[in-house]
Amino acid sequence: MLMVEKTQVRNETAFMIMYTQPGPFTGHVMLIMMALMYTTAQAKIKNQCFEAFWYTHHLAFFWAIGLYTHATGCFVRGALPGEKVECLGYNTYRFTLISGSLYFGERVYREIRSRYQNTKIQSVLIHPSGTIELRMIKSGFKYLPGQWVFLQIPELSRFQWHPFTISSAPDDPFVSVHIRQVGDFTNALGERLGATLELVNQLNLDVKNGIAGQDARYEDFIDLTHSLRSEIPLIRIDGPYGAPAEDVFKSDMAVLIGTGIGVTPFSSILKNIYFVDSAVDSNFSYMQQKGKLGVLRKVHFIWINKCDQSESRMDC
């Protein structure tokens, strides 16, 4: 049971307590921020308007400031028996100072590092269903199969970083990502690179009629690189970052299940297996090449796709 002395009761209305005191005021501000962040984190909103998700989630920094100042203004008070009433203050920062400093330092480091990881687009391929394949110059960039990166194109946005899974293998002479046009940023990127709706519809028609290249099963894309040679935008890479898919080489048997364009991490893994087997067959060092596959010996690959066989292999 708590004993409240008459001298501790302040003559204030509920409105004054809830909206003029630092504690309740910061609490309301934090609730509004959380409502915005939770709402834009919904899958439909995030997929259709990634920009809203990206910008509102940076409110977390201001939410942390509200958390640190939530108990200011002597809103929480206490006193031991026989002693005067004292403001208890706030001690939240003591529990988050180390982790918060590490996180803030990591964000600053990421921002600085990404500014120096500029690269150039080597080629731009447009696949049926409007999926764009960007092949970028490696320039010393190292990664493992199944990992992903953040990409930024300053010409489209100087602040937005969008995550994409790496679809190329580490032994490929380039770094590639497959981007499906489903949101504001990806649609703007497609329009900037010339992947218009008319071009996609024509490519789909050519593939179905079997006239896309000499063999529609293999030439089901259009290379847009030459038409953009002098206008290819600058691109920045932040990463790579780890993903569960890279643990596939820690088991002797792996079951890979992907749907639609979500198969991209497995594309990198399967390409890596192919390159290792090709190197072994070419009389390269057996142990050196097999070591890249860890203990993996068998792979079951299941790909669920809503498109028929006449359409592209990684676009639906």
TrEMBL record:
Entry annotated with the keyword Transport: yes
Signal peptide: none
An example Gene Ontology biological process: defense response
CDD domains: NOX_Duox_like_FAD_NADP (cd06186)
SUPFAM superfamilies listed in its UniProt record: Ferredoxin reductase-like, C-terminal NADP-linked domain, Riboflavin synthase domain-like
PANTHER family, alphabetized: FAD-BINDING FR-TYPE DOMAIN-CONTAINING PROTEIN, NADPH OXIDASE
Keyword ATP-binding: no
InterPro entries from the UniProt entry: Cyt_b245_heavy_chain, FAD-bd_8, FAD-bd_FR_type, FNR_nucleotide-bd, RBOH/FRE, Riboflavin_synthase-like_b-brl
Transmembrane segments: 25-41, 53-71
One GO cellular component term: NADPH oxidase complex
Protein name in the entry: FAD-binding FR-type domain-containing protein
Keyword vocabulary terms for this entry: Electron transport, Membrane, Oxidoreductase, Transmembrane, Transmembrane helix, Transport
GO molecular function: superoxide-generating NAD(P)H oxidase activity
Organism of provenance: Melampsora larici-populina (strain 98AG31 / pathotype 3-4-7)
Cited Gene3D superfamilies: Nucleotide-binding domain of ferredoxin-NADP reductase (FNR) module, Translation factors
Domain FAD-binding FR-type: from-to ranges: 114-247
